[in-house]
Amino acid sequence: MRAVRVTRPDGPSAVTVADVPEPEPGTGVLIEVAAAGVSFPDLLMSKGRYQVQPDPPFTLGLEAAGRVLDAPAGSALRPGDRVAAFALGAFAERFVAPEESTFPLPDELTDEQGAGLIMNYQTAHFGLHRRGGLRAGEVVLVHGAAGGVGTAAIQVARGLGARVIGVVSTGEKAAVAARAGAHDVVLAGDWAAEVRKLTGGRGVDVVYDPVGGERTGESLRLLTQEGRLIVIGFADGAIPSLALNRVLLRNVSVIGAAWGHFVDTRPEVSRAIADDLARMAREGTVAPLVGPAFPLEDAAAALAALDDRRATGKVVLRTAR
């Protein structure tokens, strides 16, 4: 079968597609992949910079959607079931995922949408609901609101009953964030002043921040009393230093949300999140925005699009020949 391989950690240009032996189902769920989601961790792995870095050579990819070919004895899954799954090795025509990381795919979503349903949406739900305690009626500010991470946060926040303000860098990306469901969208140039205007000077209850860098300090200043800054990652490349006096005097919280590490030993949390995301999909709130779609052979170009920040929505790979 075809698979996207990393043989040396030199980034997207060094990624290749090769024929490899088909996997054995073993104790996991064997899945015929229809579409795979391209994420920032995949990009980091191609460069040898991810926090849990496999030794090359290995098959890249962490999430995919498709149909079950085989499942362990006693499993609720059956051959032919449509699923979304999370496990290393997803950029291939077939891969094996643990049953606890394999979830039924709602009928309302396509395979391409399912390829973007796990990492971004589970992280958004975990960060906003479990870690951030988001309540209906609160105001959420989402940085990087046009990418796969940001559009997921917009939709999950709406599904939890919040008002959402997105921050983007261009007018084109503003249209994407609005299509994802943001109530208001502001451009990054003077974003803090615009957010203050939109909220009548009140500020926001929650900031969802996958960007980091220089925005973090201003995000703290925008929080209302008892507001929460949810730290998702540092796409800007800079890990900011925080002015803890602001945290103290304004009675605000800075909260980390590392979904993957948390659910590794608590699969019941991931299952509960999947159930709630399925509810949101049935209600029409959650519908992943599929961005550029590449054939499996063009995996290097898909990773480069993510690396150059040219992509809006979720970048996916399709396995069909």
TrEMBL record:
Gene Ontology molecular functions: oxidoreductase activity
Key words of the record: Oxidoreductase
EC number(s) given by UniProt: 1.-.-.-
Protein name: NADPH:quinone oxidoreductase family protein
PROSITE patterns, per the entry: QOR_ZETA_CRYSTAL (PS01162)
Organism: Actinomadura rugatobispora
Organism taxonomic ancestry: Bacteria, Bacillati, Actinomycetota, Actinomycetes, Streptosporangiales
Domain Enoyl reductase (ER): 11-317
Pfam family, any one: ADH_zinc_N
SMART domains: PKS_ER
InterPro entries: ADH-like_C, ADH-like_N, ER, GroES-like_sf, NAD(P)-bd_dom_sf, Quin_OxRdtase/zeta-crystal_CS, Zn-ADH-like_protein
Record's keyword annotation contains Oxidoreductase: yes
UniProt enzyme class: oxidoreductase
